[in-house]
Amino acid sequence: MASAETPLAGRRIVITRAEGQGGEFAARLGALGAEAIEFPTISIRPAADFAPLDAAIARLGEYDWLIFTSANGVRFFAERLKAPPKDLRAKVCAIGPATRRAVEELGLTVDIVPREYVAESLVEAFAGEDLSGKRVLLPRAAVARDVAPEALRARGAVVDVVEAYRTVIPEDAAERAREIFGVRKPDWITFTSSSTVNNFVAAAGRKALAGVRVASIGPVTSRTLREHGVAVDVEAPVYTTDGLIEAIIAAP
To answer: Apex CA 16: angle with CA 7 and CA 122, to 5°?
Structure first.
């Protein structure tokens, strides 16, 4: 039986975060009594071609803003950077606490963190900034939403979007899905991005979620789930893994 200390006792909860990135989330769920099942639906790979990113880094002193939308983007940017920039004049925007920590570990100061961790909130965060003619570098995944760059360009910014990494479906995803959902269904599955949703459906199929409650990290992920015909049982009030845990605990 669940207690105040272990409110998730006995619950089996699936984590779909990228390979090697679900450990902390799993540990928090475990501390609350849950059985955390890691089922990565994303595998992070280097950019298909680093030339555009390398060229942008070579001109780093020309940029007014650096925008990072994930810790993965920061990691691959840092690997290509090779040394901390000494003449960086750009201000830095980071979406979310994990991305902010990754930026600060590079020795850089984060000037803007959007109130919510989605592209629309990023655009709102720049409402007080004069972006006319300002140069913006956005290193990110090969496939991502264009909400932020398009909105910043509409404000007059010159935005360079460069591929820093790619996301692919792990080779064993379909087999792993059969192991997890084929016999004893988990109680919950958590989705932390649209990519986790798309890759799960590609690997396991929507029907694998029959009888499993679905927790979404935020409105963009929820919209993707519904586009696949998947009902969302809870959505995190704050778009973080802690928010996901809060939503699951509060679920009736």
So the answer is: 95
Are the C-beta atoms of residues 11 and 33 closer than 8 Å to each other? yes
What own/partner pairs with CB < 8 Å and gap ≥ 24 does 120-127 have? 120/147, 121/95, 122/67, 122/69, 122/93, 122/95, 122/148, 123/147, 123/148, 123/151, 123/152, 125/93, 126/93, 126/152, 126/155
How many CA atoms lie less than 13 Å away from 51 in the CB half-sphere?
1
Residue 209 CB contacts under 8 Å (≥ 6 apart), including other chains: 181, 189, 230
pLDDT attached to residue 86: 60
Q: For residue range 126-164, what is the model confidence (pLDDT) as tens digits?
A: 888 899 999 999 999 887 767 788 889 988 999 999 999
Which single residue is written with the structure tokens 């396991």? 204
pTM: 0.80
Query: What is the b/e burial string over 195-215, where b = at least 16 CB atoms within 10 angstroms of the residue's CB?
Result: bbbbbbbebbeeebbeebbbb
Nearest-CA neighbor of 224 among 207, 247, 200, 203?
200
Integer Cα distance of 81 and 75 in angstroms:
10
Q: Is the pLDDT of residue 104 over 60?
A: yes
